[in-house]
Design a protein that fits this description.
Elements (H helix, E strand, L loop, with lengths): L7 H13 L2 H16 L8 H43 L15 H19 L10 H25 L5
Helix pairs in contact: 1-3, 4-5
């Protein structure tokens, strides 16, 4: 998609999000509050004077919620696409993970449990690159244990600790 195809709202949202996150926007907002506070005595701290800042900040906050959500949705989608590209391009990564954000909370919890189990098994490995699935991690763990047990039995025989 070329940048020329962006809608007016898209361009406005991008520019607004960029500006409102800048130092210039913060300084402008800060100055508005200072000017408002300084004019308090001029307007005898009237209800109208208070209403000006309350109404202004409420409207800006209301609009910013939608602007921030738009920017967040776009960023989130871009990150998901980048992660999907990394997953799909890595031969050892599971393609089942592509687009998991569309799963239900229960399904995500099941996957989370899977990766917790994988992490528990991987913690037992000294080399962090030895496995990428629970089955591979379990097999690797058992293979290491069996190899250790065999070496230990040999050590016991050579040191007269026979069983």
């Amino acid at each position: 998609m070329s940048k020329a195809e962006n809608s007016f709202f898209e361009k406005l949202a991008n520019r607004s999000a960029k500006f409102t996150g800048s130092s210039t926007a913060f300084i402008a907002a800060f100055l508005i509050v200072i000017i408002w506070a300084v004019t308090g005595p001029v307007f005898n701290y009237s209800e109208t004077w208070q209403l000006v800042i309350n109404t202004g900040t409420t409207i800006i906050t209301f609009l910013m919620v939608f602007l921030i959500q738009k920017a967040q949705n776009k960023d989130s989608k871009a990150i998901q696409i980048k992660l999907n590209e990394l997953i799909s391009s890595n031969e050892k990564a599971s393609n089942r993970i592509v687009d998991i954000e569309d799963l239900s909370e229960k399904e995500l919890d099941q996957l989370h449990f899977y990766y917790e189990k994988l992490a528990d098994l991987a913690e037992k490995d000294l080399d962090i690159h030895t496995s990428h699935s629970i089955d591979a991690a379990r097999k690797n763990h058992h293979d290491k244990y069996d190899a250790f047990k065999k070496r230990h039995e040999e050590w016991k025989r050579t040191h007269n600790f026979g069983s």
